[in-house]
Design a protein that fits this description.
By secondary structure, this protein is an alpha/beta fold. The protein folds into two domains: 7-62 and 326-418 and 435-450, Beta Barrel (Lyase, Ornithine Decarboxylase, Chain A, domain 1); 69-322, Alanine racemase (TIM Barrel, Alpha-Beta Barrel), CATH 3.20.20. It has helices spanning 52-59, 68-81, 97-105, 115-123, 140-149, 159-171, 211-220, 242-262, 288-306, 319-322, 360-364, 454-459; strands at 39-41, 44-47, 50-51, 63-67, 86-90, 109-112, 131-133, 153-156, 176-183, 205-206, 225-232, 268-270, 312-315, 326-339, 345-351, 371-372, 381-387, 396-404, 412-416, 437-441, 444-449. α2 runs parallel beside α9, α5 packs across α6 (159-171) and α8 runs parallel beside α9 (288-306).
Amino acid sequence: MTHEAGWAHAPGALRAPSWLREPTDPNALVAQLWSQTAHKHAGVLTVGGVSLTDLAAEHGSPAYVLDEADFRARAGAFRRAFADYDVFYAGKAFLCTAVAHWVAEEGLNLDVCSGGELAVAERAGFDMARVGFHGNNKSIAEIEQAVTLGVGRIILDSLHEIERVAEVAERLGRTQSVMVRVTAGVEAHTHEYIATAHEDQKFGFSITNGDALDAVRRVVEVPSLHLLGLHSHIGSQIFDSSGFEVAARRVLALHARVSDELGVTLPEMDLGGGFGIAYTTQDDPSDPAQLAIEMSKIVEHECRGLGIAEPRLSIEPGRAIVGPAMCTLYEVGTVKEVALDGGATRTYVSVDGGMSDNIRTALYDADYSCTLASRASDAPPILARVVGKHCEAGDIVVKDEFLPGDVRPGDLLAVPGTGAYCRSMASNYNHALRPPVVAVLDGRSRVLVRRETLDDLLSTDVGNDQ
C-alpha cells in the first residue's frame, strides 16, 4: 500500500519536480504527449494500429516509431492554418526520403541546412523550387550543389557567403534568389543553445549595429543575386508569441528602411520556426490555428504602423510537426535501487539505448516522459530515472517519471515526443548502432531508415586495409 497522502510524503522519499504529478494509474497515457493514434489495450501500447510488442519482436529495440497519420495531420494543420504563408518543413528536425515525400504530398515546402539534407531532397525528387537552403558556413561545393539544382532560395548568413553565392551563380550563369538572415536582438525564453536571435551568437547579421542593412545593400548591388527578403529565427521550443512580436517589429522596421533608403521593395519575409511541443505536462503549446492568428495580427499591426504593404510571409515548423509524431521504444535491461543521503533511494531503470539515440537530455537538460509499453501493472507507482547504457553519468533519457513499481528487465518502455532532433542528432558513441525508423499506419509497419549493422559501423574503419 502507498502512503495515504502519496508516496512523496513517506519518510525518506525523493521529491518529484513540481510539475510532475503522481498518477492515479501509472499505466495510463497522458494523451497530449503522444501521437494521435497512440492508445493502450490491456496495457500494451499501440501506435498506428500496430502493437509495440509486435513491432519490437519484428524490428528489435531500440527503435524510433513514426506515426505517419499523425505527421501528415500536423503538416496539414500548418498548411491550412497558414494558408496565406509559405510553410517550409524544417528538415533538420528529422528527414529521410519518405518524409520528404510526405512533406511534398501535404503541400509544404522544405528547408534544408546541409548538402546531405539537400541530397535527401534530391533523391526524393522534391521540387527544388520549393526548397530553402540554410546554414552559417555553407561550403563552395554545397553552394554549387544548391545553385545547380535550382533551389528556390538560399539564406545568406555572412559577407563571405554573399560573395561565394554571387560568384557561383555568376559562374553557372544563374540568378539565384536569396534571403538575408538577420538577428533581431530577441532573448527567446528557451535554452541558450537553441536561442538564435540574440546578438552574441553565430547566426545572421545584426539589425542593431547596422550589419543587416549593409548586407542587404551588398546583395542588391550584385546582378547574379535576387533578394527576396529578410529572414529571422529567434530560437526553438518557444511557447510565448511575445518573442515573435518583438522580432517582427524590428525586422519589419528594417524592411521599411530598405525600401526608403535603398529604393528596394522586398516581396517576402520569413519569421522562422521554433514552435514548441509538449514533452511533459509542464509544456502548453499553441495549436497552428492559434499561432497563425497571433502571428498574422502582429505583422498586420506593424505594417499598418509603418505604412507599408505586408510582405509574403513564410514560416519553418519542424519540431511542431515531427516531434509528437514519433516515440522511441526501448527494452529494460536492469533495474537498480541506489541509496541516497537522508535515507531516500533512487530507482534507475536502464534501457538498451540512451544518449546515442537521444542526446537532448544531456545536451539541453531536456525533460521527457515515458510509459510501460508492453503490459499492464497493478503495482503502485514509483519515481524512477530512465538511463541509457553508455559510459557516461549524464546518459539520462528521462530524468523523472512515475513507473509501475514492478518495472523489470524485459519490459518495453516508450518515450513520446522524440521525432525532432533525436534520430537527426544520433551518434555512434561507444560504437552503438543507430536505431531504425519504423513508420506505422493502419495496422502495418515499414522501415524507413534501417538499423545500422556492425558492417556499417566498421565500413569506414580502414586501418586494417592500409
